[in-house]
Every structure is written in C-alpha cells, then in structure tokens.
Amino acid sequence: MEIFSLVLLLAVSVYILKKSEQRKRIALLGSHLGNYQIEKLMETLTDGYLCALGEPDPERREQIWRYLDTAEAQLCEQFNKFCAEFSRLDAADTRVSKLALAIPYAASLFPAPRSTFARPWPSMRTGSRKQPATRSNARPETRPSRCLPNYF
Do the Cβ atoms of 82 and 36 come closer than 8 Å? Predict the structure, then answer.
C-alpha cells in the first residue's frame, strides 16, 4: 500500500509539473501569436483554395485566385514578422524536448534530445518570402500545394 501511495504521489506530481510547463509554453506562444491573424488567414486561404479548385466557372475561379493573392501576401508578411519576433527570444525559453514522452523539464534535464522551438521558422520564413514572387509563373491550381504545407 505504501508503494502504491508513493507511485500515485509521484504520478500526480509529474502531471502537475508537466501541466505547468505546458501552460508556460502556451502562454509564451500565445503572447506572440496574439498580435497576428495567422490562423484566420490560414482558414481564409484553405477555404478559398477549396472554393477555387471546385469552381466550374473560369471567370469566377480567376476572381477567387485574385482575392487569395492579398490573403497570401498578408499571411507571408505576418508570418515573417512573427518569426523575426519569436527568434529574438532567449533560446532557453524556446527549448523543447524531442522525447516522445512528455517529461517535465526534460529539455533542461536531458541536454542531448532537445531542440530550440524557434529554429525551424527562419527557413520557413525565407521560403514564405519567395512564394509570392514565384507564384506568377505557375498554374493557379498548384498554389495550395506550395503555400499551405509550409504554414501547417
């Protein structure tokens, strides 16, 4: 019975620590994402792409693609600003663990399997910067497969 109590106490403690660490990370990300409309623009683009790809009338389809040009440009601009802002944060604050199991403070306890959360975004930022410039040569039907995977 004592072992069960200790295991239960340990499990509850780990759960509480894990939740507090997750809350801090969500608050950090939310405090920076709150300044932008990235999610709303992604929803607009996703719905717009589906509408344009399913539209049988070529004139209406072209009108939808032109409307989506501005949404793509806004998304690229906002995402670039977000990446620049988030990359200025301290690396210790953005460090995450690569372990499959959520262990509280694993990023600071186990130095080998960790990564900085902001590291992938600069490469995505340069990719998103190139997209509006390169899309003029391509067929409109290929735009969703070039734009959305970077942001999702």
Answer: yes
